[in-house]
Amino acid sequence: MSISRHAITRGFAALTAVALALGVAACGSDSTAESGGATSADTTAGETSSSGSSTDQAGGTVELTVYSGQHEDFAQALADGFTAATGIAVTLRSGGDAELSNQIIEEGDHSPADLFLSEEPGPVAALDAKGLTSPVKDATLAEVDSRLVPSTKGWLPYAARSRVIFYNPDLISEGDLPHSIMDLVDPTWAGKFAYAPSGAFTSTVAYLIDTIGEDATLAWLKGIKANGVNEQKNGKVRDSVEAGQHPFGLSNHYYWYILAKQSGGADKLASKVHFFDHDDAGGLLLTSGAAVLKSSQHQDEAQQFLQWLGSADGGQKVVAEGDAAQFPVAPGVNSATPGLPALADLHFPVVDPTVYADTEAAQALIIKAGIA
Amino acid sequence: MTVTRRRAPRLITVAALIVAAASLAPVGYLLLREGFSLRRLIDALNSPSTPELVGATALLVLTVAAVCLLLGVGLAVLVTRTTLPAPRLWIVLFTMPLAVPGFVAAYTWVAASYRYVPSSTAIFGLPGSTLVLSLNLFPYVFLPCVAALRGVDAAQEEVSRGLGHSALRTFFTVTLPQLRVAIAGGMLIVVLHVLAEFGALQLLNYSTLTTAIMQRVLVLGSPESGRALAVVLIGGAALLLLIERIARGRRTPARIGRGVTRVPQRWRLGRGGTVGWLLGCAATAALALGVPAYIAVVALVDSLGGSGRTVDWARLGPAAWNTLQLSLFAGLVATVVALPISWLYSRHPGPIATATERAVWLVHALPGVVLALALVYIGVRAFRPLYQTPLMLVAAYVILFLPLAVANQHVGLRAAGRQLDEAAHALGYGRLRVFVRVTLPIALPGVAAGALFVMLDSAKELTTTLLLIPTGMSTLSTGLWATTNGEVLDFTAAAPYGVALIAVGVLPAYLLARRTVQLADHRR
User: Fold this and answer.
1) What's the predicted TM-score (pTM) here?
2) Cβ neighbour number for residue B415 with a 10 Å cutoff
């Protein structure tokens, strides 16, 4: 009896010793973290007492903190590109779009974020609508496709994704695909397609509310819930269609192009991508947006980030050449992703992106329809 | 013995109350946050989703609870009370699922289905979710049952058999009732885990209150409606705590002295039975451990072979180091702050003791996202310097997993019976000296087990970590999630993190299994 007790006691003592050793090590790393925190607290204090030139207080090096709802690798590539071009360091905090925009709202004036990079237009447009973003310089906005710029000028579109259908030709031919996503409520489509209540789905609902009204949108959502399979995530829509679990699914174009690239070419995939290529809600072009936060202590450097992000030889080049397979939005810059159509050749509904700001109405309907 | 001696020292009572209050702060946040009103709550809940989600959640809780009850109790009886060969090996194997985070287990099952039966959807939905969660959670019932079964006095069963009752009837009327506390406690942990599970269920396409809350907060960006659902979830958790309290019963089994406990006779399985049950045990272990381990290894090989993306060792190393540090700290801090509560609960039972103990359990049922949002809110306003530091994350782990420390300390403190305290008191020892010299040494294995559970669960935690982790830092679980964001069915990119996460969990899980074996052995 006593042997076993001693054994566990000794084990615990050993663990405690390890923990204490780690503790000493961690104190070292903690103090670095704390000094970082202290720096931002200092600048906050400096700002409240004497606004402005508080940045060189810590020795002149400015570091931008970027909250990003964008896919992490893509956001990191953008951050690295900016640092390489300007020498300004960037710390990235990656997470969900809505999660981080909500966190910015929760953090209020104390938010450590200087910039927000969204994946979807909704969250960044909502921050803009709440008055939390600084206006983007006209010169920066002039760099990108004017059809995509919000009328409020509170954020910069820097990349775009098209809503598409992924389909599995073994199970359905391209000619048999629905002409419009509005058709999907018809019982003939029951059990035939997958969808995901993603940010892009919310944007689609916001767009529908704006164009056909709440009642018709709710009826459509209920039909989608009844007929479709909720795969939770756009990536899972792609994988499940590729695997032959569903004939087709609603998703964003780049998931398929990324998989094609990873697999060694589009011909290696069982599934194919279908663009609506007309003014249908199923073929919306949704932009990712970047905004400078009003609460940022580094307004100049943050605006510099936006300027770089929108420029053809800066951020747009990263968008065009990167692995993310998204559409660059500066005219004349075309994606290097094989098979991806040029934005100029694609037909999609043109709409002021501020319609996506009312995410609340869209959420309410999605919940009301029982989808989330 | 005087009445004053029985009353809890004020310092301990105050400390326990403070800890309980700090644990409850997130629940308070749900109700007291500005902008919250009963009217908004009712509005937010008035949707067809609400009853649907409540129903789906209840259904999953029931199916997982039923399977875990069968597996946990059945396997415990098999390894402790039958002639099944190699019982210690099986105890270790049936503890090991604790080393596999739920979302990793689910991910590997989904990946296995995608790899080998691509067009099948059988793994998704209720059956798949029940299978994966049950295989992951049954050790929480199995372990306490093994310990309790080995502690049951043979004499009582022999009396029952002597009175002419069958072995089966004896098991149900004499043995099983003595497992009530162990079963109730284990089942409570299982169902609370089911209530709080997010990552696994999202991968398995099963919607519960928690996945809906996460969906609303993370994707829809509608935290207000998420919080409304969280209120329902907390109500459900409170109900479960009450049920456990009743199921456990008020009485503790009568025991006169402890020197006479003997090991009961083991049921003979016979040759055919032995082979059959061995196959059953092997199948359970293969499903619970083999599938995750096999897929993790196969995907790791693919990943090392350059398929998908290359392994980013420069990120994996620091992530593993961060996970180790954070979980060790969480374990130690939780151990210290749990002591007043477990002490009060085991030594000075009463309304305050019960209330503080239940309070920390209630928080355990909170989905990580609610706790995280609450801590962001409270952190930014009240503890500004701590916000987005590792300390905040440790605080979250401590609040989330405190009940595991309390429960295990309670077992340890009960082992160090209060009679011993009183005897030492009578010999003139002061309170502190009694605690340090008498109680703590005997209770230490229980205290250590509590710390291990907290470390293990902290290392596996995903949801809260995603929200509270300091900018630029990553752990194994956030690193894994970042490789795919739960978007893809293929495990290749996630494999290095998955393997590292399982590896981190193996040692504490093994120590817990060993402790159970030893606990059982020293009662012989």
Assistant:
1) 0.82
2) 18
